[in-house]
Amino acid sequence: MSFLNTLTFTNALQVKPSPLQRKRASLLRNLKDQLALLDNPNLAKTRFKRVEAEGCKEVVELRIPVRPWWRETIDGKLTFFLKSGLKRIEFEKGQTAILVPNKEALPGLINGLIKAVEQGELDNLIVDKTEVKPIQRKKVA
Questions:
Q1: C-beta of residue 98 within 8 angstroms of C-beta of residue 81
Q2: What mean pLDDT value characterizes the chain?
Q3: 49: burial class by Cβ within 10 Å (0-12, 13-18, 19+)?
Q4: Tens digit of each residue's pLDDT (9 = 90 or more) over 39-93
Q5: Residues near 48 by beta carbon (within 8 Å), at least 6 away in sequence
Q6: Which of 11, 65, 80, 101 could form a disulfide with 70 if both were Cys (CB 3.0 to 4.6 A apart)?
Q7: Burial call 63-89: b when 16+ CB within 10 Å, e when fewer
Q8: C-alpha to C-alpha distance for 43 and 104, rounded to whole angstroms
Q9: Is 114 helix (H, G, I), strand (E, B) or coil?
Q10: Higher-confidence position of 55 and 99
């Protein structure tokens, strides 16, 4: 009896993350970047891009600066907003920002938001309503 005859074979299922899981992971990654941006204002992500120059393909390193998700108001307070894709997340009707008293309170807010995203508290806000497509059934003749 050969070794292969002693093994049990099955199909390898590929598990793709759902759109919600992908958006949640992206939001967590971006929130951690915002936390790192507080320590290093010149923070930049590194990306690699393949370009063709003079008939040769080469890999070029790109530095993409991390933009802050907070803005200072006229009275010295800060507003912090979350982004999912290119859009700001709307917490309530017309409310897209969180008011923060000062810059020292930002790390606590960002850590709290990271925990909330990990626990799924913001799932209904980060899922785009247009992404959910109804299942179309074929008509049986």
A1: yes
A2: 86
A3: exposed
A4: 999 999 999 999 888 888 999 999 999 999 999 989 889 999 998 888 888 888 8
A5: 59, 60, 61, 62
A6: 80
A7: eeebebbbeeeeeeebebebbbeeeeb
A8: 19
A9: helix
A10: 99
